[in-house]
Amino acid sequence: MIRRLIPHPLLSITLALVWLGLVNTVTLGNLLLGTVLGLVVPIITAPYWPNRAKLSRPLIVVRYVLLVLWDIVVANVQVAWIILFKRSTDFRSRWITIPLELTSPEAITVLAGTITMTPGTVSAMLGADGRSILVHCLHTDDPDYERDRIKQRYERPLKEIFE
Amino acid sequence: MPAIMEILISAFLILGGVFGLVGSFGLVKLRDTMQRLHGPTKATTLGIGCALIASMLYFFSTGGAVSFHELLITLFLFLTAPIAANFIAKTYIIRNIDRSELPASSREYGWSVYDDSPALRREE
């Protein structure tokens, strides 16, 4: 019964907090409205998101977020450097395939997002069975190194968080 | 407002402007659509980030209250940028790239643009 009424508790809390952030003032009315939104929206969208995602190990989540934020800053500087100082004929862009060990759709979504936001890589497509991901590298001399780096740095902590 | 805050805010604004400019310059310099995708998903993220930090610092030092709007903009940006990039990449691939140009998926099924998913295959 509770599962039917609150299909995604984490989504409910996030929605309420986002609403409070949008109105930018905490009053009783806004708190109530945020709670109603947090309860109603997950029920309406439940058919599109049938499985409840498991999130464990909050410490690793915090560490992962900090790691990704840091990598985004580094990525920006690297890409800016490549754009400014490399001749465009010297770019060696490549496709690389990353076989996935993750199985939960939420984890794969986060991984794909992370790959796009971090150094020199954009995730382009999933395999039809969702077990591999196609990544485009802006400039790389060693595709195997890139693949192993993504698997080590991002996939492993995500596996611990979601599975 | 103390002078040090003004200097800090100005520095973030200039840094943000520089990164935004470099990201846009990338659109001109890079040669094909897949390469161009790297510009707006990265260099401009930090540009916008710097502008948002400057905005937070400004409102903190004038009004004294922390504003959450900047954090939300960051959150929405991180949610939407990769998904938009993914859509553009898939559209580009299906219209311009032959499947033999892409590396194999190294699994039983091929890439999702060309192959049916396991569920669809079972129905046939």
TrEMBL record, chain A:
It comes from the Bacteria. InterPro entries: Cation_antiport_E. It is a multi-pass membrane protein. Pfam families: MNHE (PF01899). One of its GO terms (molecular function) is monoatomic cation transmembrane transporter activity. Keywords: Cell membrane, Membrane, Plasmid, Transmembrane, Transmembrane helix. Its main location: membrane. GO terms for cellular component: plasma membrane. It is found in: Cell membrane. Belongs to the CPA3 antiporters (TC 2.A.63) subunit E family. This is Na+/H+ antiporter subunit E. It comes from Brevirhabdus pacifica.
Automatic annotation (TrEMBL), chain B:
Keywords: Plasmid. InterPro entries: PhaG_MnhG_YufB. PANTHER family: ANTIPORTER SUBUNIT MNHG2-RELATED. Coiled coil: none annotated. It comes from the Bacteria. One of its GO terms (molecular function) is sodium:proton antiporter activity. Pfam families: PhaG_MnhG_YufB. This is Na+/H+ antiporter subunit G. It comes from Brevirhabdus pacifica.
